[in-house]
């Protein structure tokens, strides 16, 4: 029964008059039995004891395939269920499910995150109903615990250049833009620039900074490996994805501070999250450090 459908089997054959407000899923997280026990060893143990049976914990294709089936069935059922939702136990699957939804043309989506003890889970909900505008629901991961107002994202910042390396703002901008060029980001200048600070809005359509990290690791490996034929076969071209929204958008500030130039990035949106902002900041630091050596 579960092999054929996930939710369609619970509805009537034609189901013309039968509708539901929502469906809520806590999917089997794992694909193989051994994954249930296969923790990295670097994460703290969960504070709650797992009480699920093996059939409840694992399924063919894991939670990714299970939730993908729900998405495919929701495309057939449409408004027979007003809101479809599921929890996800792995961040990589959460990111992939958002890509699948966008690839299927589903834009009425909202997300959240559940944190209990040492365990983090992610939630995704989507709808085809014009009465359930989920994209207007505030993202709970960006909400303050003490107010209903959306909290501004605290910027991540770091010193990237000294005044010896870049005596003027124009030179600091030149260094920064040169470091960012390989990432193919969109940088839109913002109002408010002064003699000591430049402002942009950064938009990334793809996660190019992770590709750059892989290239650097490959370059280091090439230095120690004689055969280049084997390495060439491992380097792939990132696949093109159907995407309706950027992977990341952030506010960028380059300003004079403490005898140098500080880069500050504030997360605005996108599935890459604040991790993506932190990764870009670290990428710039590494890139400028390499160029100065």
UniProtKB/TrEMBL annotation:
Does the keyword Methyltransferase belong to this entry? yes
**Can you supply one Gene Ontology CC term for this chain's record?**
nucleus
The GO molecular function terms of this record are: methyltransferase activity
Keyword vocabulary terms for this entry: Methyltransferase, Transferase
Region annotation (Disordered) ranges: 35-56
InterPro entries the UniProt entry points to: METTL16/RlmF (IPR010286), SAM-dependent_MTases_sf (IPR029063)
Q: Which GO terms describe its biological process?
A: rRNA base methylation
| PANTHER family in alphabetical order | RNA N6-ADENOSINE-METHYLTRANSFERASE METTL16, SAM-DEPENDENT METHYLTRANSFERASE
The identity of this protein, by name, is: Methyltransferase-like protein 16
């Amino acid at each position: 029964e579960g092999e054929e459908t996930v939710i369609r089997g619970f509805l009537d054959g034609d189901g013309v008059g039968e509708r539901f407000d929502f469906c809520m899923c806590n999917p089997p997280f794992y694909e193989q039995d051994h994954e249930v026990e296969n923790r990295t060893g670097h994460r703290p143990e969960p504070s709650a004891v797992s009480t699920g049976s093996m059939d409840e914990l694992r399924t063919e294709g894991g939670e990714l395939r299970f939730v993908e089936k729900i998405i495919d069935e929701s495309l057939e059922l449409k408004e027979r269920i007003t809101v479809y939702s599921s929890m996800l136990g792995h961040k990589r699957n959460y990111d992939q499910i958002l890509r699948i939804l966008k690839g299927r043309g589903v834009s009425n989506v909202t997300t959240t995150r559940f944190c209990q003890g040492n365990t983090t889970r992610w939630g995704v909900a989507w709808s085809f109903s014009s009465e359930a505008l989920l994209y207007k629901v505030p993202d709970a991961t960006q909400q303050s615990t003490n107010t209903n107002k959306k909290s501004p994202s605290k910027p991540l910042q770091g010193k990237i250049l000294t005044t010896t390396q870049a005596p003027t703002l124009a030179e600091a901008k030149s260094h920064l833009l040169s470091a960012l060029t390989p990432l193919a980001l969109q940088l839109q200048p913002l109002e408010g620039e002064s003699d000591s600070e430049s402002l942009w809005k950064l938009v990334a359509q793809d996660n190019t900074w992770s590709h750059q990290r892989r290239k650097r690791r490959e370059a280091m490996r090439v230095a120690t490996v004689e055969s280049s034929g084997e390495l060439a076969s491992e380097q792939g071209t990132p696949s093109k994805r159907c995407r309706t929204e950027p992977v990341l958008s952030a506010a960028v500030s380059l300003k004079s501070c403490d005898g140098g130039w500080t880069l500050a990035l504030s997360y605005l949106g996108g599935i890459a999250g604040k991790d993506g902002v932190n990764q870009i900041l670290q990428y710039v630091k590494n890139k400028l450090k390499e160029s100065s050596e």
